[in-house]
Each structure stands twice: as C-alpha cells, then as structure tokens.
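step=predict obj=Magnesium transporter n=326
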Amino acid sequence: MESEFLKQTSLISYSKKSYEKSCYTSISDVILTNTTPSTEWLNTYGLAFREIFKKIIANNKLDDFLIKLFMDKEHSNKVILLNDLVFISTRVLKTESRTLDSEQMFFIISSGFLWSIQEKDGDYFNWIRERIENNKGIVRRKKADYLLFLILESIVDNYEDTYQKNAELSATILEAENIKPTPEFTAKVEKRKQELFNFKKATLSLKDTIIKLEKIKINDFDIKYFSELKEQTNNLISNIDFELQELESKINLIFSIQGHRLNEVMKTLTILSVIFIPLTFLAGIYGMNFEYIPELKIKYGYFILLGIMVLVTMGAVWYFKKKKWF
C-alpha cells in the first residue's frame, strides 16, 4: 500500500527563483510545513490510503481532527478551519465524456503548502503545472492561496468550456425547427435537462465552497482572489437556468402540439358524427318493420328520402363552415 501511495503522489516545490518536481521514496519524506521559503504542492491520486494519511498527519503534527475527516467515507461539501490550515471537501465533475461522472476531492491548505487529494487518476491542472515550471505569470511569486485559486478556477473554466460545447451540440439537435412531438425528441430533451442538473449541482457545490473560503482567516492566506470565482459560478448558473427554461418551453410546446393534434382529430370525428347521426336516425325510422308506414306507399318515397338526407348533410356542412369549425 505504501509503495502504491508513493507511486500516486508527486511534489512540486517552487518559489520566485526556484522550481523542483519530485516524487517521494518514503512516507517519512512527506513534510508539510510553513517554515520553508518555498511553496509546496503535494498531489495524491486515490482515497484508499487512509492509514497512510493518518501517519502523515501524525508525522507532521497536524490537527488530529483531520484523521476523523479522512476516516469518513461520505463527505458533503465542507470548508473547515483547523488551527493554521484549512480542510476542503468537494465533489468535482469529470467531463472527459458526455456521460458525466464525478469524483471526490480534498484539499489541505496552509500558507506554505497545498495537499490536493483526488479520487481518480488524471485531472485538468496541467496548465498550472506548466506555468509553475516555466515561471509564467505571477504564480511563482504567490503562495498556496493563489495556487488554490488557480485550481478552483481551472475547475470552473472546465465546467464552462464543457457546458458551452454541449450547449452547441444541444442547440443543433433541439433547435426550434426540429421540434417534433415524438418520444425520441422528448427523450433528447430530458437527457439534456439531466446534464444541466448535474452541471448546476456541481457548480452550486463549488460556489458554496468559494463562499465559505471567503470567510476564512488564517495567517498569510489572502481571500481576495475568490470573489472573481464566485462571479464566474454565478454566470454559469444563470446560463444553465436560462437553458433549462428554454428546454421547459420546448416540452410545453410539444404538449401543446400534441393537444392541438388531438383536438383536430376529435373535431373531425365530431363533425362526421353530427353529419351521420340524423342520416342514421332517418334510416332507422324507415328501416322499422311496421306494416303501415304511409311514406312507403309513395311511388317516389325512396328518392324523396335520399333527397332529404342530402339536404340534411349539405345543411350541416354549410352550418359548420359558417361557424368556421373547419
């Protein structure tokens, strides 16, 4: 288990004038402290190393409450202040495919270090690693608070990019001229709504984390960066809500089209019924087996009855047209 942990863990140590990327050879080498002049970014893939997490916490004399937090198997969105560090728990969407998945992420951050723990291998933080390595921007002149900001910004940007990409595909498939009251079209709309609900849930969770971070007060931890992230999440949530309203309108339009078609069918059937009911009545009267029906003795009674039927039909049709029923 220890060798697997070391394999899944890496360290980036940087300052304004230095950069070093390395891996650990022993658990005892994992040192989390604010006393070094450099900022350290420790990253681990996998949540199954709970016993090793306990050793690292004990070796570095971190708050014992972290052990309890790591032992919990189910985590809601949390931002907990512990002495001179912060524990953050959040769920992040994995957006590599249209089938959206999620993973648990933990952050332990202080002024001089950031330990990020991800449930699954792979992430979209490589651009941050490249900026640190190549000394681009201001990241190497900042501390761990700015690094956390960049990581959270990367998550938000990934949500926005994936949302926009899927929104373009959705707009093509679900555009107004393609609306059809069929089970297939309705299923596409419901699938897109589920995607949006997943995005909204993840974004709201991230927004809640950012709002909590804005209230954190520890030494050398600047919260000014997170207000911009809150605005980004607000904009994304607004866009999602707007598209949800559009999809709801399309569903309502489908129901309206179905209702209109049903009304047209019922109107046609009703008109035909009204036309043929009097004809059926006349046929029924003269089809009765009574011996004395005076009209039967008239030489042209059959043709007279047919004429009456024609007149009744023409009268009904004229009346319906006058009322603009068809």
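step=describe
The mean pLDDT is 83.
step=end
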